[in-house]
Amino acid sequence: MRRRYLLLLLVPFVALLALGALPGLIGGGDVVYVTATEVDLEGGEAPTEGATDTIDAENLSENRFPYTMAALDSGVSESHEAGRFGFEDSFTHTPDDEFQEFETWNREAVADGGAVYLEHDGSYYRLEITPASDVES
């Protein structure tokens, strides 16, 4: 009887553990980076249609926004490879998650094309999700 209960607890645990580890092993999708480009503001506003404000990057955590913070530090973040079948993004943190959160925080800091404008250490940056083919090595 105890074996049956132990098995009933162990099987779902192993299945959930596999679901957490498996998506990282299944690659093959598009590779993207977050790129940061320093920009000059035009009259205090972001120089593009649709964006009229910026987000203060001083309030961002490196643990919560790893792609954004890496891009602000070096110009380009670590790569993110989308899952082959699209279900990996449900289990992992993606650059899209960060950009969606920025849009939730301040829609006015997001340009029509999806770029986000941030203020960091007195400079202003345009952040974009960029395909690997457009990133210089």
Can you characterise this structure?
A five-stranded mixed β-sheet has the order 2-4-5-1-3. It is an alpha+beta fold and 137 residues long. β4 and β5 form a beta hairpin. It has one domain (27-134). The protein is built from three helices and five strands, in the order αββαβαββ. It starts with a helix and ends in a 6-residue tail after the last strand. The chain is elongated, with a radius of gyration of 19 Å. It has helices at residues 2-25, 66-74, 95-105, and strands at 28-39, 55-56, 80-83, 116-120, 123-131. 32% of the residues lie in helices and 23% in strands. The mean pLDDT is 80.
Largest sheet: 5 strands, mixed
Tell me the count of domains: 1
What's the rounded overall pLDDT mean? Answer: 80
Radius of gyration (CA) equals 19 Å
Number of helices: 3
Strand content range: 15-25%
Q: How helical, in percent, are the residues?
A: 25-40%
Distance between the termini: 60 Å
The SS-based structural class is alpha+beta
Q: Using the alpha-carbon principal axes, give the shape.
A: elongated
Order of helices and strands: HEEHEHEE
